[in-house]
Structures are given as C-alpha cells and as structure tokens.
Design brief:
single chain; about 120 residues; alpha+beta; Immunoglobulin-like; 4-stranded antiparallel beta sheet; 4-stranded mixed beta sheet
Amino acid sequence: MKRIVIFFLILVAASTRLKAHAFLKDADPGVGSTMQRSPSEVRIRFTENIEPTVSSIQVFDASGKEVDKRDRHLDHSSDHALLHVSLPLLGAGIYKVVWRVVSVDTHVTNGNFTFRVVR
C-alpha cells in the first residue's frame, strides 16, 4: 500500500510539472496550412496562460524580412492564453511564424511554424 501511495505522489508531481509549460495548442492560420487569401492576423493559443509583456510572436517572409505589424497583444477580454499579431496584405508565398512565450509560472517555451498564401 505504501508503494502505491508513493507511486501516485510521483505521478501527480510529474504531471503537474508537465502542465507548467505553455505549449502551442492551436494556431490560425494553422500549422503548415495553405491560405487562399492573406490572413489579417496570426493567432496562437497555448495550453497555459502567458505573460504578454515578455512573450513575442513574429511573422517573416521567405527572405527573412519581418512582415507583421509589430502590434503583438494578448486577448485580455477572455483568453489569457491567446496571442495575436496583425498582418498587412500578404502576397503569395511561404511565411514563418516565430514565437517565444513565458507562462504565468515563468517557464519559457518557443517554436515556429509556416503557412502558405496562394493567390
């Protein structure tokens, strides 16, 4: 019985530690998606609430030039795990979204993905 209790406590501690990081949950445009027209913004949602002042999202074209409007913001009204950045009208091409977020418990995660615009 004592071993079962210890195992259970280890399992709970490990699952709590895994949940402490903000991982990418979903994105719009979707990861690897092809868009028929230019999106007006990129929205990425994480598995945990994030700190907007120390989190970032950027969008780059194929040449490596940043093309977003540099107006990163968190959805303060309801979803503290959703980060947005506005986009100008994009031409056809492949775009790379690069993000780095700090969850409310101070853990840092980062990543990137691409989407494609065709016209």
